């Protein structure tokens, strides 16, 4: 099934032209091939990083909520979180059920309840003619009740509140329908096959001694009844074959990697070994896993050569793209500090750009956007028309890409400045750029 | 005379009963579960949930997923696991102990040296537990300590990283090693 992502990216005429050109039904057409035909059909991946998300072993749940909301809004390109979730779960109604697959097999580094809770809070903001999405229709699940409990989740099979239980809970179990997963007979959790209409996949950033990494693609080993038989040949192609099954592929709308912490060696067991302070979100499961794999490499993981299942998921199963050139990667850094970088791959400038602020003239707030061709230390300063520095908006290293910051018309001492012309200067080690802004009281 | 003989015989029987050698702890055949550190054996460290016992590779896979393959290729026979909880720096910390029986010392050593165990850069613990032991510290977050002796490969993991937590890991390791000896 072609995802809504693609249908959103291309108009109907273009879509029909492709179908006509290929002579093959788009319903079975691999996404990777479509990507090659449509230059603009990039898979959006949002990476939210906030250095306030963790402190040692502690997680700041408020920060995580802001990270999740900003990421989901960016993913859906919606301003309001409830609308953003509705966009990501197309045609959802209050009668539908959303299942959230967490990863709790390693209780020392599971999908953190704070991250899952941030998703739940967003889902509950979906409004339908003034009625919010009922929390009873949200299910957090994994293989077993015991795994969920050990990871810090509170089981709930009652008729109120967000439900949380394992496939091994009384009355659940695995469906009787069997699927052929590259020669291995598998049955799927009834939570997927019978109970839920939509699926959100929340994995953890870990390496894996057998499959190289364990991210969103491999997370569904906790959805089938016999994952032990799917570990041969580094899990390739068992992992993509499992993800290609109709109930998973058609219901899974959003993939999230809880990358607050990571395990780079000896995984999937063990305690956290490094802090990444990241959450990754994408509708494209392969793009997400590719980026997660890169983060593990950047942190010294040495088993990624075995993670061939990610590439097979792209090339053989058409589940998404593993090519960074086919991704629209959006970096959001420190959303709690008000700096919201926006990195659109399409039409990216080559070097440094400082856009005119908007609105301009302005009264209370104005937004300043700039683009960095390469990562590096940046200063973004506001000067008066006499050349006196009145406000330092940014003075620290930033990643490459688009960034956005809001100026509230106050100086470094938090005093409102008077009406007049102000100069905003972007300074890097290589270049300087400036714009003139007009503040009107 | 007959009475004396009977009395002497009775005494001998009673003596024999009371003086016969009782099986001592060291004579008992220990199971892999017996090698686990007991509740509060290390002061302040108590069981955190029930442990598990895996008697074959399928059972091990259920508990540790694909990580089981490393042990499978080194002759896995059985494993026992227990999680513990104790306080360090006024906060609850979790320590996990897993003991693997690989059948013989060569297999245990091969497991210890297998790069897939993921301890590159680990520091050797000289004159510590086992034939060889090593540990690794992950910048303020966690520590892992492993050792092997006889057929056993032992893995200890704690979700904290200070000198005190390392000392706790070493106490656990020496406790297990003492029983393997």
What would your notes on this structure say?
By secondary structure, chain A is α+β, with helices and mostly antiparallel strands. In chain A, the strands form 6 sheets. In chain A, strands 1, 4, 7, 8, 11, 12, 13, 14 and 15 form a 9-stranded mixed beta sheet that branches. In chain A, strands 19-18-21-22 form a 4-stranded antiparallel beta sheet, with no helix packed on it. Chain A has 13 helices and 22 strands. The model of chain A is unreliable at 1-40 and 341-347 (pLDDT under 50). Chain B has 181 residues and is an alpha+beta fold. Chain B has helices at 2-19, 57-64, 68-72, 105-113, 163-180, and strands at residues 46-47, 52-54, 78-88, 91-101, 123-124, 132-138, 142-149, 152-158. In chain B, strands 1, 2, 3, 4, 5, 6, 7 and 8 form an 8-stranded antiparallel beta sheet that branches. The radius of gyration of chain B is 22 Å and the shape is globular.
Q: Give me the count of strands of chain A.
A: 22
The shape of chain B is globular
Mean pLDDT rating of chain B: 88
Query: Roughly what is the average pLDDT of chain A, rounded to an integer?
Result: 86
Largest interface by Cβ-Cβ < 8 Å = A-B, 33 and 30 residues
| Subunit arrangement of the protein | heterodimer
Please compute the radius of gyration of chain A using only Cα atoms: 23 Å
Give the N-to-C terminal Cα separation of chain A. 54 Å
Strand content of chain B: 25-35%
Structural class of chain A: alpha+beta
Q: What descriptive keywords fit this protein?
A:
heterodimer; A: 441 residues; alpha+beta; nine-stranded mixed sheet; four-stranded antiparallel sheet; 13 helices; 22 strands; 31% strand; disordered N terminus; B: 181 residues; eight-stranded antiparallel sheet; 5 helices; 8 strands; globular
